[in-house]
Amino acid sequence: MKDIQLPGGPHFAYRDGELHAEQVALSALAREHGTPLFVYSKAAMLAALGAYQRGFAGRKAKIFYAVKANSSLAVLQVFAQAGCGFDIVSGGELERALAAGGKPADVIFSGVGKTRAEMQRALELGIGCFNVESEEELDVLNEVATRVGRTATVSLRVNPDVDAKTHPYISTGLKGNKFGIASDRTVQAYRHAAGLPGLNVAGIDCHIGSQITESAPFLDALDRVLDMVAAVEAAGIRLQHVDFGGGLGIGYEEDNQPPQADALWKQLFAKLDARGYGDRMVMAEPGRSLVGNAGICLTEVLYLKPGEQKQFVVIDAAMNDLPRPAMYQAFHAIMPVREAPNGAGGTYDVVGPVCESGDWIGRDRTLATQPGDVLAVLSAGAYCMSMASNYNTRGRAAEVLVDAAKATLIRERETIDDQLRKEKLLPAG
Ligand SMILES: *Cc1c(COP(=O)(O)O)cnc(C)c1O
Fold first, then answer.
1. Position in ligand 1 atom list of the atom nearest CA 248
2. How confident is the model at residue 246 (pLDDT cuts 50, 70, 90)?
3. 355 is catalytic
4. Residues 258, 248 contacting (CB under 8 angstroms)
5. Which stretches within 175-305 are classed as H helix?
6. For residue 168, is the peptide bond before it cis, meaning its omega torsion is within 30 degrees of 0?
7. What does pTM read for this prediction?
8. So what's the pLDDT on residue 194?
9. Ligand 1 within 6 A of 285 CB?
10. pLDDT for residue 169
11. Ligand 1 center to residue 132 CA distance, Å?
């Protein structure tokens, strides 16, 4: 086991037979804070960001961390301090970004269903840009901006109609998706936007999906987007920026390694240069690729349960903590926190306590474990805690952020009082 590179390595690695996050032994964190427990490595986040920064070096370019991937305040704080802006998809995420130290001017607001109230708040704060997804939304934003006496800076999210070759639920750039403005409506939508007094048309944007593990869909999408830039500018509307969204995948498994951000962006900038758009401001909205492999979830083995066809390891984390397997049949590596095998090895389905057959975390895994052991579910930094729920009245997990030898509790475990606080019994009689 010593020589394997874990997802999230080298920041998550075995040392002296114990899995560590940076310099902190994970078994000690499980003892101190209980399980399920999310543990993040700050160095892993900054290393992932570093790949984008290398790819963007010497360019007019800015990184907007996509808050929904992991919206915990301390995680946002790390990215704010590292100079990132934020890509948000709700008024709630706007407040989080500000609470973590983000500046309104460094916020861009994406999403297909912004409400008037969300638009008004964002306008009053003076956010950097609205990524608008329909002509109807242009009219509503114009109306709200005019009413509050502000001008909304906008870019239009276009749908380049490319197949991102990912799970259908996380593919967003195909014709049948709800996202973006169809390519044959683009020029018309821009003309419409340019004619609205409350709007300032600044750019174009796209986001073709998530967990994309090849370069080709990105390169195809950029070609289509640049075709649209050419068409829009031929209509007399100048575009200052190209926002290329997020979507770069991470390696959940050793044999499925997506391109590195710096290598991908080298290719994308080469295309921008070749087509004469190398001088434009370029923006990106990465989420998963900045945090996915910077987090793990610690969980305790409760039972080994023999079944008629399968053997089960029942753990104390479940689909409410780690929703990706249930939602997308996603794979997460599962490793023991102590390297030495414990008990007889076997092939198990690793499942949680929630009353749903969909509540599995891993299938057909070879593990040597017994009740009381702590396991680590890897690649759990993105779309886990931010999607966690209280299903089965399970409190959401605690979170710890590790920075070298220092571990900080960044979210307390949710208590039953936290969960019941907003609820009311019917009045007596
Ligand atoms: C979700 C989302 C992102 C981030 O996607 P990742 O796959 O996590 O990089 C970026 N932009 C928009 C508009 C999104 O909806």
1. 9
2. very high
3. yes
4. yes
5. 186-194, 216-234, 261-274, 288-291
6. no
7. 0.96
8. 98
9. yes
10. 63
11. 15
Looking at this protein, which amino acid is placed at residue 71? S
Structure tokens belonging to residue 2: 């010593």
Question: Per the structure block, which two tokens stand in for 74?
Answer: 């301390």
CA–CA gap between residue 109 and residue 132 (Å, rounded): 8
Interaxial angle between packed helices 73-81 and 42-56, expressed in degrees from 0 to 180 and rounded to the nearest 10: 40
Tell me how far CA of residue 41 lies from CA of 8, 134, 223, 320, in angstroms: 9, 38, 36, 22
Residue 174's pLDDT band (cuts 50, 70, 90): low
Domains of the chain: 9-41+292-420 (2.40.37.10), 110-286 (3.20.20.10)
Q: Token digits for 138?
A: 């242009």
Tokens 């931010």 belong to which residue?
386
Cβ atoms of 305 and 314 within 8 Å: the answer is yes
Burial pattern 353-366, b for ≥16 Cβ within 10 A else e, equals bbeeeebbbbeebe
396 to each of 241, 390, 393, 413, how far by Cα in Å?
Answer: 39, 6, 9, 6
Instruction: Give every CB contact of residue 405 below 8 A, 6+ residues apart in sequence.
Output: 22, 23, 24
Judge if the beta carbon of residue 369 lies within 6 A of ligand 1.
no
